[in-house]
Automatic annotation (TrEMBL), chains A, B:
Gene3D superfamilies: Amino acid/polyamine transporter I. This is Amino acid permease. Residues 1-23 are annotated as: Disordered. Keywords: Membrane, Transmembrane, Transmembrane helix. It comes from Streptomyces caeruleatus.
Amino acid sequence: MSVLTTEPGATPTDEEPPDSGERHRLTAITGLAALSLDAMASVAYGPEAIVLVLAAAGAHGLGFTLPVTLAIAGLLAVLVASYRQVIAAFPDGGGSYAVARTHLGRRTSLVAAASLVLDYVLNVAVAVTAGVAALTSAFPALHDDRLWLCLAVLALITAVNLRGIAESAKAFVAPTVVFVGSVLVLIVVGLFRSAPASTQAAAGHASAVADNATAVGTLLLLKAFASGCSALTGVEAIANAVPSFRVPRVQRAQRAEVALGAVLGVMLVGLSVLISRFHLQPVDGVTVLAQLAEASFGHNWAFYLVQFATMILLALSANTSFGGLPVLLKLLARDNYLPHVFALKADRQVHRHGVLALAVVSAALLVFSGGDTNTLVPLFAIGVFVGFTIAQVGMVRHWRLERGPGRRGKAALNGLGAGLTGVAAVVVTATKFAQGAWLIVIALPLLVAAFETVHRAYVRIGERLGLGRVPEHPHRERSVVIVPVSSLSRLTSEALTAAASLGDEVRAVSVCCPDPEDRAALHALERSWAEWDPGVPLIRLTCERRSLGRPIAAYVRAVTASEPATRVTVLIPETEPERVWQRLLQNQRGAVVAHAVRRETDAVICRLRFRLP
Amino acid sequence: MSVLTTEPGATPTDEEPPDSGERHRLTAITGLAALSLDAMASVAYGPEAIVLVLAAAGAHGLGFTLPVTLAIAGLLAVLVASYRQVIAAFPDGGGSYAVARTHLGRRTSLVAAASLVLDYVLNVAVAVTAGVAALTSAFPALHDDRLWLCLAVLALITAVNLRGIAESAKAFVAPTVVFVGSVLVLIVVGLFRSAPASTQAAAGHASAVADNATAVGTLLLLKAFASGCSALTGVEAIANAVPSFRVPRVQRAQRAEVALGAVLGVMLVGLSVLISRFHLQPVDGVTVLAQLAEASFGHNWAFYLVQFATMILLALSANTSFGGLPVLLKLLARDNYLPHVFALKADRQVHRHGVLALAVVSAALLVFSGGDTNTLVPLFAIGVFVGFTIAQVGMVRHWRLERGPGRRGKAALNGLGAGLTGVAAVVVTATKFAQGAWLIVIALPLLVAAFETVHRAYVRIGERLGLGRVPEHPHRERSVVIVPVSSLSRLTSEALTAAASLGDEVRAVSVCCPDPEDRAALHALERSWAEWDPGVPLIRLTCERRSLGRPIAAYVRAVTASEPATRVTVLIPETEPERVWQRLLQNQRGAVVAHAVRRETDAVICRLRFRLP
């Protein structure tokens, strides 16, 4: 550790110590594991959502599965391309918040931030409940304990993330690889079959296909498209968390983003092809992914492996929020929209307060929803689409201000993406309004209002502190140090020594309550004090009520009133116990006095910890 | 509030301000309500306990109810007389602890204290569960929620006692009067009947009388006596809490004690007479008191009133512990057997820490026993008998040392009482050993060991503090004040002013972490500092890991090592927010620095709270 003194008037030389936090940051691969699980896991419910909507139009409607999925894959490509540019343009992270703040104004950036925050929090709750729901459908005996299971999974993920994002990523690489690998193998094997290997799982369950087929209209296709867009949640996370990558940050993040898009697109389209090939129909109580696994592999160990990997990945996809949200909270804190504690970084690149805040709010959501998926899912995905739309509109503006080649094409691409996601946002909100989307419509403005309130408070505090202005010169005042004493010991001697070093005048005070024991003790103290003769007066403060701190605070106020040019300091001596349990033996008088003085006066409070010799 | 200065050498004049805490203390009547509910409530289960044991000998055994009860009443009279003397001899309270400490040695006094503590705590748990059990037998639908009901009742009693013992007493006078009144009326009315008015409640329940009557032997009578002695728990409480009474304390406490003995004795004997008169037999599921109420009043509103009053009084008899235990804890703390916090008194004569400690331990017991009476009752009453025995043996010693008239008679009385309660203690422990009394046999020595450990620690601390010896004279050392700064504002100016007033030399330090943002901010600070030129050097401390407090603590250690005759002080400035919620906006740096400095150095830590202008 080096020390460099800056004398007034000297110019400091520039030092560039190596940033040794790099090994706690992410590579492209670990970045995928830390931040993309949300998007990956949506292959478990994305195709299912599409198929469920199309099933309302009977078998004819189901025929549109592949086209709708291709449209979603197209939108995915547009989004990945957009965010690749966002990463390059905003290497400090923040995703749509950063884009909006630069190009669309303050209010819009807050709306983007609020929608991201809401969605990250909901993602944790939905992911954990979905994973546990998958577990309890395999083991129905656990159904009653699902809330405790959810909280346990949440605690596990929180603990891993408190150790650090790189640690969480390493921990989660294996399940990701297993899941992605098994789905890709599923697709390849299925392409070589002409008929399902087995339909055992779906047998005996009620079909979800409607009997009276409604016509396949634009509205139905739009709804299917919007439902399937839930597969796109989580694409933003990598762009939010660019600072968490190793140098060169932008390139690694871009690589991770493109890899995510590629893998996700292949999985979605591949599964959709298989759905068409096998003429799969949605069934109550069995997921489409389960049916596909069975159709490709047959009802054997591979089928169960896919189920198990899906369950684990669903639960772990909460990790995306833990990767993306704390960085966003830090940016908001840096811009004074959130308390500055969220910008504090502890060791190992962990945004501890952000992680803990997310864990607490998610736990509250879990308890409130009782571990039940159906309560939370309708709220999901709206916030992310709002974020997508704002980001791409911002990027359109970005390209208008740029001068490089191909900017018209890029702007058009972003405009198209913005249009598509905007439509998706509106459709999802409208279709899920009664089921709970109204909560989002209320919560979002409330969150924005909270950001504005915090911002106003900081601006006001900054003004009153005179931040940015050169303040008055410091000057020296006469100081009086007041030392509360209750008995005569080495501690008293040490306290008076410290006080004499700090102040021009020292006064010892002792509080006497109208209790015979107390009065006797005080008389004894005064006699010993007179014998000791330390050169410091002992002042007796009486009190009517049995309080310790108030008389001292009142005395401090009296001194300040009678001698205005004096700075009053209260020195509170305490022993430092040898062993930790002995803290219980301390009688808390110091804390009582400090509390009263802090609340009622402006005196400086000094705590002296005396280690017993 | 008056201030009296004691200059060294002057003799202080004696002041005797009126003790205005009197109105928060107890009169004889309110003393009964606050401290005797335990004893009063035992008429609900005392006669029942006797009758249940005697029923093993059939109807013949039941005939011995009245003689056994008269014996218990006689022991009650002896106890009341003893404790009347204890109150006079030990007006500081403490009951058997005080007696033992003066006359029987330290170890015995700790055994007395430990047994009292255990029994007070158990009393709370048993009383609350018994009251709630009475409630749930009237309303069986509440049975599943009984643990929450117990905790709610505990919270209510704790809250009332936190307001003050006099307040609790006033709150509980009414139920006491209703209960005592109804029982007395029950006895009077019953004496005028020759046969039970109704036996409706007992009909349909299985009789608890044994078919094959065993002979009525001495052992059976002893067991019945010992069981009935559970009615005597709570007689000690008034003697424990003498300081809580108004002046003249001794006379008021004695009046309350005698009143308690009289009322309790009349109730016990009266109920016993009625049991014999009506030839009552114990029945599963209906209490003896219920049967008596029905026999006297008939199955009408008066019957239900007695039930209801019993239920309330059982629950409230926990209040006795809240009255007696905190005073005992205070005495133990004063003698250094418990942490001194228990001796702290807040406003209104409330021993806050004692009340809270009792509430917490009782809540733990309740949760552990699941709100189930049967788990806890076997442990009950052993501690109190140990206390009774120790107290009376001590009083025998007391009279041997006295010179007054009639001391032989008084000593003989106490000796008899000691013998009787000693026998009761042994019998109860032996009969309930397997059911849980072994827990007490283990817990008591553990508690005594804990007291000794605390005492040893205090003695050691006192030696190292040099308590009782005249310490060194204080002297003045050169002081260096270190002020951590991160930005330039009014706060910085104020901090440097305070530091200049406190120290001979002031140094400002700023921690620079290897982060580009941090380095830029520090450069800006150093430039502004050079412009400002406050006359105080700004020292840059670098750190490798992202911590704020460690570099400052390391610098403090370096200064102390290089300049040994200097006292180093760290001044931490913080803004005092206008509104309470704005405390969330503070960035916790001050706390981080203070924590690191406190843990790693011996420097004095000063906190400056700056109210924004």
